[in-house]
Specification:
31% of the residues lie in helices and 20% in strands. It has 281 residues and is α+β, with helices and mostly antiparallel strands. It folds into two domains: 131 residues, MutM-like, N-terminal (N-terminal domain of MutM-like DNA repair proteins), CATH 3.20.190.10; 136 residues, Orthogonal Bundle (Helicase, Ruva Protein, domain 3), CATH 1.10.8. The chain has a four-stranded antiparallel sheet, with helices on one face. It has a four-stranded antiparallel sheet with strand order 2-3-4-8, covered by helices on one side. The protein has a two-stranded antiparallel ribbon with strand order 9-10. The longest helix has 19 residues. The radius of gyration is 20 Å and the shape is elongated. The two termini are 32 Å apart. The relative contact order is 0.14. The C terminus is likely disordered.
Amino acid sequence: MPELPEVDALVHFVGSRIVGDFITRTDIGELSILKTADPPLEAISGLEISGASRVGKALIIEFDGLDLMCRFARAGWLIWHDQVPTGPVRMGKGPLGLRVHLASGAGFDISEAGTKKNASVALVHDRIEVPAIANTGPDALSIDDDQFAALLADSSSRIKTVLEDQQLIAGIGNAYSDEILHTAKLSPFAPADGVDAQALLEVIRGVLGAAREALNNLSPAKVKTMKKRGLRVHGRTGQTCPVCGSTIAEVSYADKSLQYCPGCQTGGKKLSDRRMDRLLK
């Protein structure tokens, strides 16, 4: 799932190319991607793009009085075209969800791999019309020390759960929460209210800031590959921890998994993984 650093990279790349350009046409490739009907998507045709920005994990294409809210879900992404394909779009065929044509001849797609189609676009007069945006918590790179300390003190949930809750703190997902907790030497199962908030917030800023800097000048086609290269524990089950040399372990869930280093984060102990335990019996 695209997280704060990747979406910031999109804002930087796309914004530098589309601001001042005009929408000439939009094509829908997956009907479920469009979550609003009023105003209709056709309302942006002929409009000048005034900006690109981010809220949490959402990319926002801005017009005068309208916002196109793009949320990528787990497998969605933006594909940039220096010359946008002009052929007909076949509804429901392949990963294409939305294609945007620009007056310059360039354009972009919002696409989503896999059979589950959860990526979404919404055209609204006010971005808070999108419930997920209206309920988004403070941004992970702008939340202040007191806000973060209060957030942790009020929760007895596991710290990884808190970091991924977009209503509490926006922009962090599965991958970067693994990286943050590894850097902070915290178990993902540690109760949030027992964590040193100031120390963890410094790690959050450091990990996300470094990732954003590494990705910020890349094209969308290169962002995901560079992100993976920068990860030390996430997605690296069975590999060697670059910090302590322990073997990176995993906890599996129905639709995702987390990775951690027992040596750095849990005093050498492996966390309970009921799914894997059942498979090994």
